[in-house]
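Project standup — Tuesday

K.O.: blocked on the structure for the chain from last sprint. Re-posting the sequence here as requested.
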Amino acid sequence: MMKKTRSHLCGKMSSSSTTNTTSSTPRREHEDETEWERRPGGMLVQKRNEKDNGVPALLNVRLRVLYGVLRYRISVNSQATFGEVKKVLMGETGLQVGEQKIIYRERERGNEYLDRCGVKDRSKLILMEDPTSIERRYIEMRKNARIEAANEAISCVSMEIDKLAEQVYAIEKSILNGVKIPEIQITTLIEMLMRQAIKLDNISGEGDVSARKLLQGKRVQQCVETLDVLKISNPGVNKPPAVATAWETFGPPPTTARWEFFN
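H.V.: unblocked you, prediction finished:
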């Protein structure tokens, strides 16, 4: 009796161990066999089985999200996808959906369903920023910084041109009223305008920056042309007289020497 009982128990134990081994198959193998479907909005999500359609909608689950040194707590439906979680995190972190990487159970998640991946209430997710998006943001920041510096430089030049244009207008008004303006004053003003033109040439930029440079360059050109005209029409300016070329005249060539004869 004892021997039969032992063999019977051993048989039960072996069968139960086989059943446990079969039932404890890792979820990762099940997750690898994931089928996908496209929703009407165009989002690619994990396809549910027919068995899942009969499962009633569950309550929201609270998730803990770790993003560097920051901690976030969000609440989503248990049957939502990780893509929908990213949309919620976009409002919390400011990161776009394409810039986010969500790690759960040491795997990056796409648009799988939370409940199918074993996400439960108070589960922990790790949020990371896509390295390529970091590089793009850095390049964009440098580009914006250059544009801002160029616009600031053009604004400074524009202010200087405004001051010089006022002086050009004052000189023009004085000359039209018959007031003589020292020529050195006009020449100095032209040199100051040309310095601003050189500053504009040293500013690099495209698009709006280039258009602003062109506009200020035309202002400088108009002021210089106006001063050139005023320099000529300035009353009381002694125009240099026409000087005829003076030729050096020479006397007749010396005659040959005469010799005196002596006896």
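K.O.: great, moving the ticket to review. The radius of gyration is 45 Å. The CA atoms of residues 30 and 97 lie 26 Å apart.
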